[in-house]
Amino acid sequence: MECFVVHSIIWPSDAKPVIARKDEGKDQIIKNGEIYYRYGGRTQKIQSAELESIINHRIEQNNQSWLNLMAKIAALVRKTLRYWIPSGV
Known about the structure:
This protein is an alpha+beta fold and 89 residues long. The chain folds into two domains: 34 residues, no CATH class; 43 residues. Helices cover 42% and strands 12% of the residues. It is built from one helix and three strands. It has a three-stranded antiparallel sheet, with no helix packed on it. The chain is elongated, with a radius of gyration of 24 Å.
């Protein structure tokens, strides 16, 4: 007799929130376009507080990305200008 043990791990999604792309499940419980969130070991439709938090987090990440890019550009400009503008001017 052979015995198999199956172990699966569900990793957190990097792209939150998780949006259903098609109707699925018993009795079509998951609906296309609905947004789901994990609450204490169970998945359900997202509540407004969590959705707002996710949106604000994405906005903050995007803003930080732009600030980092602008800082890199400014550093490059400063470095380049040192070669073009004589010292003491």
